[in-house]
Amino acid sequence: MQDQGKGQKRQEMKMQNRKLLELSGVRNVESFDSEEFLLETELGFLTVRGQNLHMKHLSLEQGQVAIEGLIHSLAYLDGSPQTKSKSLFGKLFK
């Protein structure tokens, strides 16, 4: 975790048997369905993918979310690699 001058950013994850995921540091739930959740967190956007996913608990005031279902993957969506490749392609095609 990195402090970027805006206060200490913190996120905790706890997963039990790939069937229950508890997260802290959640700012907003952007979208969700039974196969994917897109969450805005203190550390960036996070996708949770799986099967039969549903929200067990949500408290945005406390920044906590609990997701149940069969969890396949967790991934942060960092724009930096895409931005670099776009700028490289942008330079090539000028």
UniProtKB/TrEMBL annotation:
Q: Which domain of life is it from?
A: Bacteria
Pfam families in the record: YabP
Q: One GO BP annotation here?
A: sporulation resulting in formation of a cellular spore
Matches recorded under Gene3D superfamilies: 2.60.40.2000
The name of this protein is: Sporulation protein YabP
